[in-house]
Amino acid sequence: IQPKIKAAFELYKRGLEVVNAPVLDKVPAVLKVMRPVMSDLEHEEVHALMVDRGLHLIRKVKISSGSISQSIIDVNGVARQALLARASGVILVHNHPSGRAKPGEKDITQTRTLKDALKLIDVTLVDHVIVAYGGDAYSFAEEKFYKKSKKI
User: Fold this and answer.
1) Rounded CA gap, 89 and 123, in Å?
2) Considering only CA atoms, which of 134, 53, 71 is closest in space to residue 62?
């Protein structure tokens, strides 16, 4: 009987986590979760926010830690974490210690690659947000990058 009670409490607890999970439907909501983690870093880090269909946060995962001017988006790692979390979508977030939020060519290329890879496993790349030192931010989705680019 005790394992059944334990299982019931676990299901109840998971249900509460979904109800209380923040909805990451706008960049300010993403920044509220990630600015405390990233805004003052002196090196680049990549994090992935796993979300359900309603854009509720399921899990936050640090994907990589880089140098002062670059980091690697581990496509396999992001895909693996999305599958483990049973996520419908991923919001990628990384920082630019330089204070400049605009994406570089490598950011654009890596975003395209990740979007294409996630599509193969039926997971959506909802957004890629760059948080700059000092507070500025860039959202690929808000800038309509996905619609402008023919490769995405």
Assistant:
1) 5
2) 71
